[in-house]
Structures are given as C-alpha cells and as structure tokens.
Amino acid sequence: MRILFLAMPGAGHVFPLVPLAWAFRSSGHEVLFGTCGEGLGHASGAGLPVVDVAPGFRVRDYLGQLFAQRPELPAQERAAARRHSVHFAVTLFAPVSRRMAGDAIRLARRWRPDLVVYDELGAVGALAAAAAGVPGVLHDCGFVRTRPLWQGFRQALLDLYEEYGLRAPAEPAVTLDPAPPSTVPEPDGWSVRYVPYSTGAVLPDWLSEPPRRRRVAVSLGTVTPDVEGPGLMQRIVGVAAGIDAEFVLALGGRPVAILGELPPNVRACEWVPLNVLLTTCAAIIHHGGAGTALTSIAAGVAQLVVPNGADRHITADATRRRGIGLVAEPDELDTALLQRLLTDHELRVAAAEVRTELSGLPAPAEIASRLIRWR
User: Fold this and answer.
1) How far apart, in whole angstroms, are the C-alpha atoms of residue 214 and residue 13?
2) What is the pLDDT of residues 100-123, one digit of tens each?
C-alpha cells in the first residue's frame, strides 16, 4: 500500500504522525509526507521522504503578517482558548490548508495513495483524500475532541472542493485518538497509544547518570518562546532557585545564552529528546502542549501546566481533571506550588495509573495493521 501523510508545518503536527508513518514503513508499505516550511525539516529529520506542497510558505511569516494586519487577533485567540473554543483555529489555519491545497491535490492525484492520514489542523488532507478517491484518516494530536473542528474546516474550504470538482466527505473515514480515555469525556474514534517522538540527538553524559536529587524538566515547546518571549521561562528559573531540586530547561532549539546566568541548580539544553529526559525526572513544568502532556503521561511524571492559548487550556483541564497535574497562571508560580508538585503523593499515584492505561492502548503498529485490513 501507499500511505500519504499531510501535516501542518510545525513540530506539534508532524511529530505525532511519525510513529504511525514508521509503523507502515516497517511493515513494507510506501510512505510519503507532504508539508511545507518548518515541517519539511521535521519530516525529513525523521528519515521520511517529504514533498514541499507550498514552496516558500512559512507559517511564522504568515501569522506575523496576519497579526500585523489585524492586531486584535492575538487577544481574541487567547480569549477563545480560555473558553475552550476551537473554532478560532479555523480562522487562523484554514488559510494555511488553502495555500497547500493545489500542490497537495496534484501530489495525491500523481502519487495515487491508498490512504491519506492528516493531523487535526491539516484539513488539506481531507481534500487530498477526496482528490485521490481514497479514505482520509484524521489523526488527533491531543485532548481536543475534533469533530466540531473538522466540520469548521470542511465548511471553510467547501469552495475548494467545488473548484477541484471534489465531493466533500461528511466526516473523516477514521479518527485516531491518542488521549487516554480517562482523560477525556469520550474517545474520539479509534484509540491509539501515544508513542513519544521528538527527533534523535546525541545525549549529554549527565543524562545517563542517576540524578543526585529530584529532577524537574521544564519545557515551553517550540512555539511559545517565540510568541511570548523568555519571560515565563525566566520566572520559572527565579522560583526554581529556591527549591531543593535540579531543574533542566529544554529550550526547543533556542540558544542557551538567551537566559543569561542560571542558578546552580538549573541547567539548560538547546535540544534534548523530552521522552529521554523525563525518564530521569520526578515532574515537569510545561505550557500545555498536547505532545508535551502526552509524553509526560507516557513517562508517568507529575505535571504543572501553565497554559497560554491554542488548545493548551483544554490540555491543562484534562490533566487537572484526571488528577495527574496542577494548573497555574504565570503569576501564581511560587515556591509553595513547586514544592507541592514534588511532594503531592496523589499526583504520582494518578500519573502511574494513566501511564498504565496509555501503555495498554493499541500501538501504532497495531493501528497500521488494522487500517490495512480495514482498507
């Protein structure tokens, strides 16, 4: 079989698809990625062939121009995120699918896949599946229940279906859901085990040694530092200085020098695979990225979530509701909160339960086999 993967150009959208792509590839099937901009390096870095379906397009440039033209949008997006409204994502990202559509449709018609898999914002995948006349599989990235989001994208892109002579599907043929069922109101289709992927790396020597005291990972993802600046990370560092624990800052590819001099109990890494780091940690502080939260669940560590937009408030509420994490605003970060993160026994019990739950879900290899039989 041939499986075409289409993803929005960002680590948070490419990385969740990689384990399934390799599950197909390891079974002897042909796999091809279509993305653009920042996503090209993420897909090729995973050892997968990739086609640029929007040459010259970069999401960060597009969003920068959009927010410059409509300066009210960032505040509106943050307000929508606090209401758990996902429809603002359609406003921001339907134009990205629109930009990718022409080349993606031509790629699908030329390469003739048997199946198209796409991420929750990659509505262009449904267009490509319709163009190829094959099922489209929606791969959720986290805790958002994606049916309303998918319908919003479908409505926003109906004119493209008409332009290319395509029949718009009523819903995805299959939806794959990586969220452990106990963390969400109801499963969103077929459950799939989340297998962490965040590229390979040469590991530092200290990471292979047992930590001398409790270790806490800190990650704000690959987008938040660019949007929000270093302020949140600096506040975390300031509070961490007063805690008897080691803090490791995973900077998502940004240079260590941006934070200046650090306290003795804080070290920074330009890039480190988060899943590897978390095997040595007791807890993590993060921004509410779905991939970060799911990687933390896979490691069975307690979480402190400081959400700041997009789907991150939904992620934060999922962790709090299930009892595997705490949630705070930036100005609520203090010594007492971090002490609770490290000492709350109930957080650790719940984290261990959900880790076991996640490990019992069908692995990507099982899902790949099921999709092949289903197809």
Assistant:
1) 31
2) 999 999 999 999 999 999 999 999
